[in-house]
Each structure stands twice: as C-alpha cells, then as structure tokens.
Amino acid sequence: MAKKRTSKKIAPISSDIKPSIFAFLKTRQAQTILGSFLVFFSIFLTIAFISFFFNWQEDQSTLTKLTDKTVRSKNLLGKIGASLSHFFIYKGFGIGAFLIAFQVFLSGIYIIFQKKFSKIIISWNWGLLAMLWISITLGFLHKKYALLSGIVGFEINEYLQAFIGKTGLTIVLAFFLIAYLVVRYKLTFDAFIEKMKQKRIENQEKRLASENETKTLDDDSEKTENQNIELKNTIKETKEKSEFELSVENLKPTISKHSDVGSKKEELTLKVEKELEPELKVEETVEDINDVGIDIAIGREEEHSTENLSDKLVKDFGEFDPTLELANFKFPTFNLLKQYNETISIDPEELEANKDRIVETLKNYKIGIAEIKATVGPTITLYEIVPEAGIRISKIKNLEDDIALSLSALGIRIIAPIPGKGTIGIEVPNKKSTIVSMHSVISSKKFQESPMELPIALGKTISNETFVVDLAKMPHLLMAGATGQGKSVGLNAVLTSLLYKKHPAEVKFILVDPKKVELTLFNKIERHYLAKLPDVEEAIITDTTKVVHTLNSLCIEMDNRYDLLKAAMVRNIKEYNVKFKQRKLNPNDGHQFLPYIVLVIDEFADLIMTAGKEVETPIARLAQLARAIGIHLIVATQRPSVNVITGIIKANFPARIAFRVTSKIDSRTILDAGGADQLIGRGDLLYTAGNDINRIQCAFVDTPEVEKITDFIGSQKAYAEAYLLPEYVDDESGTTVDIDIADRDKLFREAAEIIVIAQQGSASLLQRKLKLGYNRAGRLIDQLEAAGIVGGFEGSKARQVLVTDIVALDQLLENEKNQ
Ligand SMILES: Nc1ncnc2c1ncn2[C@@H]1O[C@H](COP(=O)(O)OP(=O)(O)OP(=O)(O)O)[C@@H](O)[C@H]1O
C-alpha cells in the first residue's frame, strides 16, 4: 500500500515537469540559444581542425595528458581542440571532418530560423554521405598521407581494394559521385542538356544584339534610312503646311485689305517649295536602302516574356503570400481553452426506464415496436424505433403531440421518420448533461483537418461527433433563441472557430453589438481581425447610425469587389485569390488579396426596431449578392417574430440556428418547422442549412476563455490599423434644405439645447437623451443644420456644433423670430 501511495505521488510531478521542459524547448528563446550555441560550436570546430593540421605531430603527446595542467597543447583551442580534431580527423574522416563543422553550423542556422526538424535530419544524412565519400576517395588517392582520409577512409579503402581492386574501387567511387549529384542536386542528363541549350540560345542572342549594334554604328545606309524617315516626316509636315496655305488662300478675299498678310503668305510658299525639293532625293534613297534587314526577333521575344510574366514572377519570388506581413503570427494555442470532463456517463437504469415508457406509450396508441436502439449524446439520448410491420409512419407523425405529452419530459422531440431511414426517432434529454467544451471541438481532427474555407466547429451531434460547417457555403446564418439559451455563447463559438483557423490576412470581422457588452472583448484584436469605417474610433459598432453607414459601406465594398472579379474574369473570391497568389493579377490595376468579411450582428431585433428599412435594405442586398465575393452575414436575434425576420431576410438566409424559443410560432418563423420550442436550453440547438434539421449541443466557450484568446492574439504584432472599409457618404444628411420654422419638430428647442450643451452634433445623442427613433433624430439634426446650429455632414464624424453656449443659442433663436 505504502509503495502504491508513493508512486501515485511521484507520477503527476514528473509528468508535469516533462511537458514544461518540452514547452520551454519549443519557445523562441530556447531555439535562439540552441541555434547560436551550434553556430559558435561550428566555428570552434573549424578553428580547431585548421590548427590541428599544423600542430598535430607536436600535440600527439598531449592527448593522453588531458587533465595535466602543466602540459600545453599547440592547437589554438587547446587540448580540447586537439582532442576533438584528433578524434574527428585522425581517427575519423580526415579533411572530410570539416563537413561535420559545416553541418553543425547549418543545424544552428536552421534552428534559429525555425526550419523543420526533418530538414536538419535530411541535411545531416547528405552531409555524412558526402564526408564518407570524400574520406574514402582521399584514402584511395593519397595513401601516403593518411591524415587526409582519416583512419575510417583509409581502412575502408584498404578493405574495398582487397575485394574489388583499384579499378573496381574507381568505378564504385565515380558511380557514387554521380548518384549523389543526381539525387541531391537533381542533376539529370536532360537538365544538363536543357541548360546547355539555354546557354547556346543566350549566346546567340547576345551575338545578334552586338551585331545589330555594330551595324547601327558602321552602316552608312542606316543613317540614310534615319534621314529618310526624318525627311518623310518633314514631307508630311510640308503637306500639312500646304494645306494650311490653301486655307490661307481661301481666306484671302476677306483679309486682302491687309497688305502684310500677303507678304507673309509669300514667305510661306517659298518655304514650302524649298522643303519640297528634297522629297525626290529622299525617295531615291529609300529605294536604295530598302534591302537593309529588319530585325523583328526582338518584338517576338517581348510577346513571349509578357505571356509568361506571372510564371516568371512566381519563379522569382514564389507565390504571393498574403500572410507575409504578419509572418510570425501565432495561432492561439489549445491550452487557452478550458477542458471539462466530457466522458458521457450512461445510467443504464435511466435508459431502461425511458425505453419502457416509450414502449408503453406507443402501445397505448396501438403502435407495436419491432426494435429499439438508443444513442446517448452529450445532452440527449436518441431512441431509434423500428415499428412493427404494417404500421404507417404517418400514423406516428399524426400522433406526435400526443406521444410527446404522454412522455411529458421537457425537450422531447419526435422525428418521424428519421431522414434517410425508415425509423422513428425520439429524443429524450439526459438527466445529467455533459458540457461540450470548445477545446474538444477545436482540437478534433475533423475541425483541424477540414479543408473548408471558413470552418465553424459548432458543437457535437447526438452521436457525439464534432459538427463542423462551412460559413462560406451557408453563405449567411440566422441565429435565434430566447434570452439566456446560449446565443451569445454560440456567437463566440463561431468567432473562436474562425480565430483558430484563419490568419488575420484571410478574414476580417465587422461586429455590431447594440447591447455593448457581448462583443467588447474583441476590441483587443481590432488591428488583427476587425474591419471598420475610416475615421471611426471604435471598431465594434454599438449605435444605429454607424450600423447604417457600415452596411452601406459594405455594399460599396461588395460592388468594388465585383468589379475586381469582373476585371480578373473569375466567378468568385476563391478563384480570384488563387489567381492573385499566382501573380496573374497586377496590383497596379487595383487588384489586391481579398480577405473574407464576416459581419456579425448581435440583437438584430433592436436594429430593425430603430432603423427599419434603412437596415433591412442593405442587409437584404448583401445577403442576396455577397456570397460570391466573400462577405458573409451572421445575424442573431432574441425575437424571431415576422416583423424582425421579414420575408426578404428569411429568403436570403438559408442556414439557421435555433436555440430554445418560447413558442411553436417562433420555431416556425426561424426553422419553418416546430421543434425549437422543445429544446432544453443551455446551448441545445437545431441547425438547418435548407433540408435536414440537426440537433447539436453547442460548444461552450466562456468569457474568460475568449479573453485569453483575444489577449493572446492582441499581444502579437498587428497591422498599422484595422481593415478599412470604403467611405460612405450619407445622401440625406448632406441636405441643406431650408426647413420652415413652423414645420420644426416639437422637440427642436430641447434637441438644440442638448446638442449645444454636449457640443456634439450627433443623431445618436438625441436618440438616447430624448428616447427617439433614428428617423426622428435624423430629421431633428437636419433642422438644426438648417437653423445653423450644427455644421454639415462630415462622413462618420459627429457634426460640428456652431453655437458655443446656451446664451448664444437663445440669441440666435430670438433673432430668427424677429426676422
Ligand atoms: N453550449 C453551452 N453549454 C453549456 N451551457 C451553456 C451553453 N450555452 C449557454 N450556456 C449557459 O447559458 C447561459 C446563458 O447563455 P448566453 O449568455 O449565451 O445566453 P443568450 O441567449 O445570449 O442570452 P441573452 O440573449 O440574454 O444575451 C450561459 O451563461 C451558460 O451558463
């Protein structure tokens, strides 16, 4: 017993230390220290080896007296240098041992620059092979100087010579040299011929070019040709001039009274005649020189090179890497996420009791059961029932409500039939539910190895499998659920999934959070992952005016992106980015790598209530058109009523997530089917992408976990600023329409005072203080502008307040009355 206890105590300590040592070895500091050590050690070895070649005879005697202080070695690096060199050069590989120093140096550099470990191993393999070859070859060539080959080279050489003779060994060594070059440096015969050909072509081109040059210099006829061209031009000019002259003549009658005009015209005619003279000469020369060869080879070559420009660029610089600016960006690690005990405990008694109740209930409705199978999930158990022969599924479907009532447990859902199977499913909640941690879904193979564009690990299915969906395919997601049922956790799970999978260069978020508390943590990753309007301070949008501007700006971004796609002749963002990476699109033409943009709106109902059509129209437009250009919308709402999720919005959001809702009607609004009212809450959800409905237990990610992740990302090097959306200028707010004093809003005076006291001309301020809707607040601002109290529209900035204090305001309004 005593023994057992001690072993139990020790085990966790040692297993704790191991990971921490490994963790340290994986840090940049450890890598830099190890790498630098190897580089310096290689320098040490090189100096020792060189010095050894000059002093090895004198140092022989010191090798056995390593610990004797009085004995000194002549090697520059002392007795250690002498001993190491003796070991590697004399007893080892002779001159070839320098390759060991070189390999140590390379390994150090590889570690410093974080190259793969496998690369170091491969480099050592090749290095050791080369060293062996050099050692044996030197042993073969210089038998007398055994130091050149070392004992290893010498002995192997002796051994091989005894077996295959000198000639045989020559052949073997030559063969190995060729094999090495072919495999290591890919020096094939074809490549060699190709290289020779290329060289020949280059030489020919050079020769041609120099010949052309000399021709230009030497050939007089070339000069004449130039003259010819010049003169031709002059003839053209003269011709034009004579036309001019004609027109002057035409004008003659009207200006004949002016005597000086006549003399000018004479001058002109004379000039023309003079210049016409050489024309004949020139024609002669043209004929004479017509034989001069016209070199069109250069033109053809240019065509060739432009065709392959992208290939050439890729060859020279590699494919474009959008992540290069933040090349050292580290994705969040798994240990930032909390782990829970996730083993599903099955209580056989509970299972048996539920089964009995199901069988009994169905029997009451005269439905016999042939077979029953239970699948235990994290929060619910699915009882799959095969009805007896002859029982129609539709009968069970019609009795759905009655059966549910009889089973009377909260959260029972009947699926009759289970799609694709002839069976009926009855989902019964487990007494003890298991939390599905974000850690388990993020670290699952299914998520990690998913080839999706925007993978989202939503949670786990009834059969405890990780459920991963692609946001890019959805392409927009509608999320609804009554308060406290797991919506915010769901949104965080979606965002966390993308943070674990996508580099900041690949995806940008626009976060709309009218509740102002749910998404604030993401502020820390503003310069990595968020997008915002220019001149806006906070990237996370909390007021309605800015939402309207952002949505409209996103529509402009959408149109711009469509233009880019059109110019690149591709159909979607994926193809566009592939083409851009292959350097087939010129950044000078406005092309750039396009990140996905994910717009997340928490509490959509609030927005629709305050801004109505102003929000609905751009959202509908984006939802209809934005799929191809990588803009995806995630809209969450507490109230899935039809005036929030309008027909037009619903039609464009095929993917829906329903957490528990309070009524069947709400469930139908969001899913077009019942069921969401029977969920058990706490992240229990139904997901549909248009056809089947899946019951999923949403992965749980707590606020401290999100904080850790955003801290981890936020502490790393970021872009200079958030991703900027195009500027949007509100058409209406720029109006300078003179509004009649009589037509002013009843709250005009009050609004003016609020604005002047706060010295901030924003509609949202009025909305808050006067509890107004967005439209009325906007109209008030227009009236204040017309009255000269606030300045004009300045993009996303608040308007300037033109009146300094209440006294000035009183005066202004008094003057108005008197006018
Ligand atoms: N996937 C989950 N697993 C376990 N518990 C969960 C899960 N999701 C939510 N919960 C529990 O439910 C609580 C409420 O969740 P959440 O804050 O996401 O609700 P909500 O729908 O966003 O509410 P509101 O709309 O009022 O903000 C959480 O604090 C948590 O305890």
Automatic annotation (TrEMBL):
The keyword DNA-binding belongs to this UniProt entry's keyword annotation: yes
GO CC term, one of those recorded: plasma membrane
Residues that coordinate or bind ATP: 481-488
InterPro entries to which the protein is assigned, alphabetical: FtsK/SpoIIIE/SftA, FtsK_4TM, FtsK_alpha, FtsK_dom, Ftsk_gamma, P-loop_NTPase, WH-like_DNA-bd_sf, WH_DNA-bd_sf
GO molecular-function terms, A-Z: ATP binding; DNA binding
Membrane topology: Multi-pass membrane protein
Ranges where the FtsK domain occurs: 464-668
Segments passing through the bilayer: 33-54, 93-113, 120-142, 162-183
Signal sequence extent: none
Any Gene Ontology biological process: chromosome segregation
Domain of life assignment: Bacteria
Keyword DNA damage: no
Coiled coil feature spans: 194-241
Keywords of the record: ATP-binding, Cell cycle, Cell division, Cell membrane, Chromosome partition, Coiled coil, DNA-binding, Membrane, Nucleotide-binding, Transmembrane, Transmembrane helix
Subcellular location: Cell membrane
Family label: Belongs to the FtsK/SpoIIIE/SftA family.
Protein name from the UniProt record: DNA translocase FtsK
Protein source organism: Polaribacter pectinis
